[in-house]
């Protein structure tokens, strides 16, 4: 019987733990703060922000959203970011992307204070993920994958983990995080020659290709753990990168979409903000 | 018949190309400069420096070696580094490691100017290697591996590349560099369960484990390309991580030790210094 790895369950358990941590901090008069920065008005960003604010607030984090006009200059934006970097009440900053053309991501990523960079935008955090330095902040999505594996007691050490996708927000950092946990890691992508053969070797298969239902049943080994990071829409219905209906009978354990990895990311964001707060306070 | 991939041949060809580049620059009165920094007196560092200076000088690069006493304070060392960062005649800086205990590598790596950091010490360059941004400087050893593959026209795209070793100076950055070149990349290490099975799948096998002759013939597929990054000593004799005598009849192409990857690194260092010079000069 295939076990469903419920992101909601993971998020609920993590939320309880984090809420208790924040309650402890509040007893000492301390409150972690998050600022989400949005430029312009993108419906997908707005929807993410709504969920993140709701989640973080429910955990006890002070949340604020800074919205800037679509035509803000880079100079003004960098000034605003500098103000957030200086603001001692804000411990974590997340900048919604994509950004309008006049703003260079390259300039921003160096400008965000690495100790407040809770979603791994600054190269210093990218480097820490690569070197396995756990003082840094990996992006929230790969952290959510690790949370799910850990919550369900799935051993990573010594396992063959195969990733499909090599983005800087999921594939590459997750490869480094699984490596840090002593998995043998294979990174596949669009240029991989026999993807089915590679994927079928996985004990832990991570689909992060951004292509609806591209992981089919012939690509999954009997009993494999399948983690679906994809969020796609097909005929208006959300689906993952995994053909869930056909793959789930073969997989040993599998995350659904929705209700899988995506359900954990905003709680992981809260975790990162609390971690940032504690590091900044020397706690 | 197994083809020997000669590092010496690669280095000679690269040297000719770089010497011509520096000659061109010199006609315009421009000379790239390198500074190698050593603390204390380590025979292995001294030997590396001697080779690097000889090579870079022969290519036309201005080389200087700054030697500091073993007991230099971190403050003094950071001051010296700042001076090198500011010195417009120095385009590349390489700091020999390991460093004495009183000097924190963590402080140094952030202090070295990323645009002069020709051996990938600064996190900004680590991050660029991870994201595939070719404006940065990967460490010289993985760059040497890529030089060898390119020199011999070995296609990387779509190939199954398997790395044994996950260090920050070879395994991890090389994994990212091979990924950038569209290989399907597997990273193995001491916790990998069936290393022979993983290694045998490689079309390009990279041995960077730091363990003498650990890659045995049962780990290599017929016709595979075998790149040996190891430098070990057995009974006073230099050898690689690959059991060359027994593996070479099986491999399609193989680098020897000595005369393989290690013969290319100092020429790659020169390449990085010239690249740094050109970037700094906006050429």
Mind explaining what this structure looks like?
The structure is a homodimer of 283-residue chains. With 283 residues, chain A is α/β, with parallel strands linked by helices. The first copy, chain A, folds into two domains: 83 residues, Rossmann fold (3-Layer(aba) Sandwich); 123 residues, NAD(P)-binding Rossmann-like Domain (Rossmann fold, 3-Layer(aba) Sandwich). Helix content of chain A is 41%, strand content 16%. Chain A has a six-stranded parallel beta sheet. A three-stranded parallel beta sheet of chain A has the order 3-2-4, sandwiched between helices. In chain A, helix 1 packs parallel to helix 10. In chain A, 49% of the residues are buried. The interface between A and B is medium-sized, with 29 and 29 residues.
């Amino acid at each position: 019987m295939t076990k469903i790895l419920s992101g909601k369950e993971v998020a609920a358990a993590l939320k309880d733990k984090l809420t208790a941590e924040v309650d402890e901090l509040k007893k000492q008069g301390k409150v972690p703060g998050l600022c989400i920065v949005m430029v312009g008005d993108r419906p997908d960003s707005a929807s993410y922000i709504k969920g993140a604010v709701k989640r973080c607030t429910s955990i006890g984090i002070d949340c604020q959203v800074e919205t800037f006009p679509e035509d803000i200059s880079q100079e003004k934006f960098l000034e605003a970011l500098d103000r957030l970097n200086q603001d001692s009440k804000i411990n974590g900053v997340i900048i919604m992307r994509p950004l309008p053309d006049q703003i260079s991501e390259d300039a921003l990523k160096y400008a965000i204070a690495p100790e407040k960079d809770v979603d791994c935008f600054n190269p210093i955090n990218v480097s820490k993920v690569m070197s396995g330095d756990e003082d840094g902040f990996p992006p929230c999505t790969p952290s959510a994958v690790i949370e799910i594996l850990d919550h369900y007691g799935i051993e990573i050490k010594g396992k063959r983990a195969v990733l499909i996708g090599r983005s800087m927000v999921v594939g590459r950092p997750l490869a480094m995080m699984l490596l840090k946990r002593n998995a043998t890691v294979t990174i596949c992508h669009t240029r991989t020659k026999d993807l089915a053969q590679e994927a079928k070797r996985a004990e832990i298969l991570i689909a992060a290709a951004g292509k609806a239902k591209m992981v089919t049943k012939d690509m999954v080994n009997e009993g494999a753990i399948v983690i679906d990071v994809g969020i796609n829409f097909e005929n208006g219905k959300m689906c993952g990168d995994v053909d869930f209906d056909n793959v789930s009978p073969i997989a040993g354990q599998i995350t659904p979409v929705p209700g899988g990895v995506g359900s954990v990311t905003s709680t992981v964001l809260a975790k990162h903000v609390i971690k940032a707060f504690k590091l900044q306070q020397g706690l």
